[in-house]
Amino acid sequence: MSDRGGSLTRVLAFLRKDLFEVLRQPRLLITLVLGPFLILVIFGVGFAPDPPTLRTVLVVPSDSGLQEPSAELAERIGQRMELVETVTDEQAARDMLETGGADVVVVVPAGAVNLIRENRQPEIGILHDQIDPFERSLIDIFAASAVDQVNREVLAQLVATSQEEAVTVEEPLTAARLALDELDPSSDPETAEVVTRLSDGLDRLETELATFRSLSPEVLVSPFVSTVSNFQGVNVDFSHYYVPGVVALLLQHLALTFAALSLVRERTLGTIELFRVSPLSGGETLIGKYLAYTLLGALIGAALTAATVFGFGFEVTGSWWWFALICLLVLLAALGAGFVVSSVARTESEAVQYAMIMLLVAIFFSGFFISLDRLIPAVRVLSYLIPATYGISGLQEVAFRGRAPSLETLSGAAVLAVLFLVTAWALIKTRVVAGIQPRRASAEA
Fold first, then answer.
1. How far apart are CA 56 and CA 102, in angstroms?
2. pLDDT (tens digit, 9 = 90+) per residue, 331-350?
3. DSSP H helices in 24-132
4. Which of 61, 68, 173, 247 is the most exposed place for a label (fewest CB within 10 A)?
5. DSSP assignments along 350-373, one per residue
6. Dihedral pair phi/psi, residue 84, rounded to 5°
7. Which domains does the chain have, with CATH numbers?
8. Sign of the CA dihedral 432, 425, 279, 255?
């Protein structure tokens, strides 16, 4: 009985010790409980459930045989479409798509009406610049809706035209009836003239009826079909699309975690006290740690990339130098953020929790699983403070589009890396260098 009582006492002692150890860290508790909840609240408020409006350019060649589509047609197609301009030159529309002046280009084929008369279904081309599979599926839905509405418009035009032509058909039919009533086998040459007019009218009627009867029901019901494609020929499947995001997120998280634990571990081991009595400056400390963790992060990044290439068949269509530069900028910015966390965290538990919170923020707001266009502008600002945001965008540009990252991506990542570097240096200087100057002054005295 005494052994059981002693065992229970020891268990309760550890229970009380660990419980009070956690309760003595209110910042850790707040971070654990309120951190994820606050992230979900911000995401819920900032997420726009309605898809963004697609700025659309319509290409209608002059010989298409169709009337120029109007703004009313765009409104009937759906709220997702904003008709920016109607042009006759497809290359001009492609240029607008490439420069960001449009999101979608709808191309009506030349001689569309003639193709329909030939019992063929013209293809309306839907061009876009999306590589996100989810956003591409939404464009597919938009294309189906747009072509369906265009088919309705064409059918309405054909019916209206047929009704107008019916007036011209009624005239020879009336003449035919009158001629039949007046026709007399023994009549004079005037009867021959009437017969000729009747024959011409009936020939026209037979021609129109033959054309109408030759059209298949599919062409009559759906004169147009659609083809949706990326105007640069880029087609990325789901598994490969998320590879750049995974590489950027893991690089950020690993670098940030290593850096976040750096100074906290130094304080726990008492090493930081040695720094304060040594001729070591905050800048030297920071540079040394940057170099060490940059080398380690570069090795990890190379291993991650090699695993995706050889394990999943991931291909980079652009320059590997650009790919490496983006990874380096993400690494430097993440290290800076980690050193900032390391300067404010008091325990390793706090540092790890802060790193996990920043990982959650990156997953929700970096464009990893939803497009940044789905966030309202006020919340989208948060995305520009996340290193992975620039990493995902830049790596996708290099890997999928085969071109250099945009100037905005490069400059944004560089500015963020410098911003975190300066902040980390200022915090480390106050924590590491504090006490060095008084010691040096007393030594000189």
1. 6
2. 999 999 998 888 888 778 78
3. 26-46, 71-77, 90-98, 112-117
4. 68
5. HHHHHHHHHHHHHHHHSSSSS-GG
6. -85, -45
7. 54-230 (3.40.1710), 236-444 (no CATH)
8. positive
Structure tokens at 215: 């059209």
Q: Write out pLDDT tens, residues 98-135.
A: 888 888 888 877 777 677 777 777 777 888 888 777 77
Residue 410's alpha-carbon distances to 71, 93, 210, 248, 391, in angstroms, are: 39, 28, 64, 14, 9
10-24 tens-digit pLDDT: 666 656 665 666 566
pTM higher than 0.85 for the full model?
no
Burial class (CB in 10 A: 0-12, 13-18, 19+), 326: buried
| Structural tokens at position 414 | 């560089």
Positive/negative CA dihedral, 127, 128, 129, 135: negative
Q: Which residues, at least 6 apart from 350, have a Cβ–Cβ distance to it below 8 Å? A: 25, 27, 28, 31, 264
* Residue corresponding to tokens 């009937």: 76
